[in-house]
Amino acid sequence: MKLFYTLLITGTATLLLVTAPTFTNYISLHIHSDNFVNGLATYQIFALTVATLATISILLLNPASKQFIRIGQINTMAEKEKWLGINGKSSWKVNGLQLLFFVSAATGICMFLAVKYTNSMDNFTWGFMPFVLVFSLTNAVSEELIFRFGIVGGLFNQYSKPTILILSAILFGLPHYFGFPSGFIGILMSAVLGYILCKATIETKGLSIAWTIHFIQDIIIFTALMMMHVKQNTLL
Question: Quick one: pLDDT band at residue 178, thresholds 50, 70, 90?
Answer without folding.
Answer: confident
